[in-house]
TrEMBL record:
Organism from which the protein derives: Rosa chinensis (China rose)
GO biological processes: rRNA base methylation
Signal peptide segment: none
GO molecular function: rRNA (uridine-N3-)-methyltransferase activity
Pfam families attached to this UniProt entry: BMT5-like
InterPro entries: BMT5-like
Name listed for the protein in its UniProt record: 25S rRNA (uridine-N(3))-methyltransferase BMT5-like domain-containing protein
GO cellular component term, pick one: cytoplasm
Highest taxon listed in the record's lineage: Eukaryota
Domain 25S rRNA (uridine-N(3))-methyltransferase BMT5-like: 2-57
């Protein structure tokens, strides 16, 4: 089951991902759009802001940690018609704001 399917109408999905090459090739924002999600925020991720946070590797090395490096937390919600319209208006406002 997809996280999007479990998301309430006001809920958000947070995904923290490395923002350096080659991880940028994953194109997280585009993947979210394809899944019907709308990006509402992106914040730089600082592990020390999350007491008890420990990252883990996948692919057979699940108990090993790794250097986090430059990462962001992407926050998304369901893409609704209202959000799309509001987004377009905000984008135009930002483009033409003097």
């Amino acid at each position: 089951m997809s996280a999007r399917q479990m998301l309430s109408s006001l809920g958000r999905i947070h995904v923290t991902h490395n923002t350096r090459f080659p991880f940028t090739e994953w194109e997280i924002v585009n993947l979210a759009k394809e899944a019907g999600l709308y990006l509402v925020d992106e914040e730089t991720f600082y592990p020390w802001q999350y007491p008890g946070y420990v990252n883990k590797r996948g692919a057979g090395n699940c108990d090993e940690s790794f250097r986090v490096g430059m990462s962001s937390t992407f926050k998304g919600t369901r893409c609704t018609r209202e959000l799309a319209v509001m987004s377009a208006k905000l984008h135009c406002y930002r483009l033409f704001k003097v």
